[in-house]
Structures are given as structure tokens and as C-alpha cells.
Amino acid sequence: MNAESDERTGESADGHEAELGSRAPEFIKSRRGLHLSWQVGVFIVGLAVVGAGVVMLPLPGPGWLVIFGGMAIWATEFVWAQLVLRWTKRKVTEAAQRALDPKVRRRNIILTTVGLVIIAALLGVYLWKFGFVMPWKITE
Questions:
Q1: How far apart are CA 95 and CA 86, in angstroms?
Q2: Under 8 Å between Cβ of 53 and 65
Q3: Which of 7, 29, 85, 94 is most buried, with most CB under 10 Å away?
Q4: pLDDT digits (tens, 9 = 90+) for 19-31
Q5: CA–CA separation, 79 vs 91, rounded Å?
């Protein structure tokens, strides 16, 4: 896959060379023990943020946004996270371009309208057959 080889070299879409790897300050990178501690700390913070995002998926909250935030934290130190984020950004951009295509928008509007008409017809049949009955029984 040609796109993957471009990502591994660190070339961005505009042709500039994007730096892969740690973005830790130089005084941290120059000391191996300190740099390893820094990476462990970044990993733990990123893991906590990703974990919170996973918890937010079924619960109220911006789950995917928080997960991508955790990935961005990891991407400050780890090349694999940088590559995952680049791939994700590329796919989101492609999906946005497809969604803005007039033919796709027209198709989506037609499908949504047909779905709403079907739901309204089913609701009408249900109300005609069973009437409007509240789910609770309150006697006065």
C-alpha cells in the first residue's frame, strides 16, 4: 500500500517532512532514564483518557472525542499512535468529502425522507389499531 509507505516516511499531504517520534523536551530526551519515565507517564495519562472515553461510549458523554484525545496524547511520544492518528485524519477527511458530494447528499435526503414516511405510516397503523394508550394506569 503506497499510502502506508508515505506515512512511514513522515511525509504530510502538503509535501513537508513531518517529524515522527517523541516530542519531549531535549533535556528529557538526553537522559535515558528520565525519557523512559516520561514515556511511561505519557502512556498512563493517555491510557486513562482513552479508558474514560471507552466508558463514555455507552454512557452520556463525548466518548469518541475523548478516545481521540487520548490517542493525541499518546501521539506526542509514540510513533504507532502518530501513524494511527494520521490514518484516522485521512479517513475522516475522505468521509467528509464524500458526504459533501451533491449526489450523496441527495441520496441521503431521499433515504431519510423514505424512512420517516415508513415510520409515520407504521405509527399511524399502530394508533389506528390500538389507539393512544398511556403506558401507565392512573385512576382518578
A1: 14
A2: yes
A3: 7
A4: 776 776 776 777 7
A5: 18
Of 13 and 115, the one with more pLDDT: 115
3-class DSSP state of 111: helix
The residues with which 11 forms a beta bridge, in sequence order, are 17
Tell whether the torsion through CA atoms of 12, 16, 22 and 25 is positive or negative: negative
Output the nine-digit C-alpha cell for 131: 389507539
Q: What is the DSSP string of 82-127?
A: HHHHHHHHHHHHHHHHHHTSHHHHHHHHHHHHHHHHHHHHHHHHHH
Q: What angle do CA 135, 139, 140 make, to 5 degrees?
A: 135
Distance CA 87, CA 7 (A): 8
Alpha-carbon torsion (34, 39, 44, 49), positive or negative:
positive
pTM for this entry: 0.55
**CB–CB of 38/51 below 8 Å?**
no
Task: Dihedral sign for Cα 121, 123, 126, 129, please.
Answer: negative
